[in-house]
Amino acid sequence: MAVKIITISRMFGSGGRTVGKRLAEELDFEYFDREIIDRIAGETGFSKDYVAANSEYAPGKSIFSYSFEAAATPGVMNGMTTADYLYSVQRKKVLEIANSGHNCIIVGRCADYILKEYDSVLNVFIYADLEFRKKRIVETYGESDTKPEKRVIDKDKKRAANYKHFTDREWGKAGNYDICLNSGYLGIDKCVEIIKDIVISK
Q: What pLDDT digit, counting tens, does each position of 142-184 carry?
């Protein structure tokens, strides 16, 4: 069956977003990443910065951080915590994109899980070793007061906790995806080539 939707999950600094953008250009697929943030912000009234900081990351580095958030803000949105409300809107937007009928690439947002019952979806996970990612985030985002290693590890832990909380699955576990690619070993170009070949061959 032809691939119509590609979801890309990625370790922070692995270049997953770049892989997605390149694929969208080469396959002529629509691309959704920060565009989803804009849509969520438009519906919820939250700022784009707030959505970006909270729609894909747990409040802390552990899944238990959601329990603390629930205790601090019980029932803020029709009985849901802010995090639950944000996820419900995010899920709605991912489904709207998937049901639009257009070929597309969706980066992050638990899209692999949200679309698990859909046919014609290719779920990709991009990862790389720590040294590659440390170097890449400095080149891409610049230096900060926080050491690159801590930036990478903290981001990944918050992504993993977010994914576990809303999907009850392990983020980055190979069995949750159709293909996992090491961008540090293969390079960005080769990752794009491999995924493109899979899509074309389908």
A: 888 889 999 999 999 999 999 999 999 999 999 999 999 999 9
Q: How many residues does the structure list for the chain?
A: 202
pTM of the model: 0.90
Burial class from Cβ neighbours inside 10 Å (0-12, 13-18, 19+) for residue 96 reads: exposed
**Cα–Cα distance for residue pair 70/80, rounded to 1 Å:** 9
Q: What is the largest CA-CA distance in the chain?
A: 50
CATH architecture of 5-201: 3-Layer(aba) Sandwich (3.40)
**Bridge partners for 127 per DSSP:** 182
Question: How many DSSP H helices and E strands does the chain contain?
Answer: 10, 5
Domain boundaries, the chain: 5-201
